[in-house]
Amino acid sequence: MSRYFFYFMSISMLIHTILIVPRDHMNARYDGAILSFLIGPAIGGVLVYAYTRSLSKFKGKGLPEIAAERLPKALSLPLVLGAGLMSFIAGGMAWIHCAFIISKYLNPDMSPYALLILFVIVTCAGAVQTSKTVLFSTEIIYIVCVPLLVVLLIHGLFSKSMNYDSVKVMLDYTWVMPSWSSLSAATNTFAGYMALSVFNRTFPADKQIKHLWLIPAVGLILELFSFFIPIGFHGTDGVDDYIYTWVSTVDAFRMKYLLIERVVSIYLLILLVVTYVFTMITWHVGAELVTGAFRIRPPKKASLRTQLPRLAVCVLIGIGTVIAGARFDETTLFKASSFWMGIRMPLDVLIVFAVVLLSRWRLKA
Amino acid sequence: MKRTILWMSVGMLLLAGLPGCGFKDIDRRFFVMAIGIDKSEKPDKPYHVSLKMAIPFSKIEPGKTNTYQLVSDDASSITEAIRHMKSKVDKELDFSQAKIVVIGKQMSAEILQKDTLDWFMRRRDIQGAAYMALGDPSAEEVLNVKTDSERFPGDSLFLSFDHDGTESSYIVTEYLFDFHRRVTEKGLDPYLPIIRPTGNAYLIDQVAVFDKTKLKAVLSPEETRIFNKLVAKYQKFDIETKTDQIQFALNVDKIKTNYNIDTSEDLAPVLHLNVRMIGQAEESSKSFYEKPWSYYERLAEQGVAARYTHLLQKLQALNVDPIGFGLHYCATHHNGQQAEWTAWETIYPKLAFKPNVRVEIKSSGGVK
């Protein structure tokens, strides 16, 4: 089962590196973005290790059960509820970003809000499924989409248009201390492990998740690729002119012998699907945590009636997402998402710390 | 069971509420194949924009299905010109197939100022990988050429530039995103290939080099070929060697180039350019077996090295750097980008070029 852990971890890493983070890092490219790629995976790796190892001590239990068992209600409720809401916000942010991109490049005649409403409906339907269904569908979509994305990355690396001199010029700025926003952006790439708070229920506890070192290694490589390929294509200064760095970079690719010469249309579709999977996971986790905080446990056999509380939470958050999407324009969206990442990182550390403590002591008699 | 049917029919009804517009049928669209920007004579409407639009056919036939409609308009900005052009045609303009942007030679100074390029970068439907070229005498005349071999309008230009059809060492390719990079990047200057219409065909054998503000010079066809090797890392080449004793031509199909900038002596910085070419003989006035091949290789090397030096010195005299030596210098030295750049600006004018060419002949062709 532990391969599923790698699926949702890498989906989260991909979404962050190609959708949410590039703008932050491009803005900070002279101000410590590169060093943050080294520090971020280190912090992220430690958090992932601590979280998975402490959760593996609880056989088949999620964060709500653990907190209910070992903490007084006054502490367990805010912990679980907070973790759930954070998961929801991460997914909602990704959808708003994606809706803006799709309405700008793929379907300009449709308003982003209409798109967002459709996206949110589909995600709600996906998120209220059982944990196992969510994991299985993640696997299917992962196998279809991720190889294509990897092909695009490799194409970028070996393209004739990729100018490695620009990349080397950037190395002058390696030892600049990173700002909080670029550091938190680099660390947030690894935030996918939070999904384990729910999926730990489905993982058999007698087996530990192996090859954990892969997570920081792959994350580091993805972050470096997603930062340096656009710079190699658009130049050290020119890259700043683009808003959605990766869409513009893929727009510069031409793969003559692929189905469609202009790969950006394929890329946008993959992006849409991967964002869907990401939000499905995060909202599923969010719904389970929020309902779990109020002692609603997942049923043995899911039906419409048993899933109703989860659906209600998802719909509520969905409406919130659409309203937020309608109020944001591009500049405020980017500001909001880097602000969000800045406060999310310490909160993540707090949750991991709490779980590590819980795995050793119990506060409740 | 009944309930499922009820839910399904409700779902079907909801589908009816989806908006049906937002998409125009393919026969209500004009596909713009090429965009041309010229300078007009009117001072208040400086942009003369031309669009080459394909007329769709059901069956593709070379030389017959490449009919097109050329529409042009003068306006104070590109956007305005396009808006006004929409009143001249009966279908929706679709830019998603526009694979080439041709700039009129008169316009070459303006294209480097950002507001002209801006329109292309800002529009979502102009592809970043579109080709760019300079039209001589004007972009409109380039667009107005109809070659007999085309399958659809503009096809022959696309084939020439992506080296999918003809593989000519004279044709230098430039992309829109690359041009934008070169306009902004320090130590990497822009260039554009020049298209000259000749009746019902094109001649693309020159390249224009720019500094960051204006067109500096047009390179001759012979210089363009060397330029193509250095800038676009183009692999095909042929070497003509002529001495009193022998005249022969080599066809090169593999070129490896690398260079390093040696600044160990402050007053005399040197650029070592190492070129390795592998090819075979194509034409010779004498039998190739009279002397060892290394003799001919040395002869060819001298000629090629002289041509490289000539081009590099010419670019140096113009103070342009399309090959990216400046960027390479900044990339290989690490003491702050600003300091490197000021150092490079003093180095480049006094840089000496030492091309070290190695030619390897692997066969003399079908005869001795």
UniProtKB/TrEMBL annotation, chain B:
Its membrane topology: Lipid-anchor
Domain Spore germination GerAC-like C-terminal: 206-365
Subcellular location: Membrane
InterPro entries xref list: GerAC_N, Spore_GerAC-like, Spore_GerAC-like_C, Spore_GerAC_C_sf
Signal peptide limits: none
Residue ranges of every copy of the Spore germination protein N-terminal domain listed in the record: 24-196
Subcellular location, principal: membrane
NCBIfam families linked to this entry: spore_ger_x_C
Name of the protein in its database record: Ger(X)C family spore germination protein
Organism: Paenibacillus glycinis
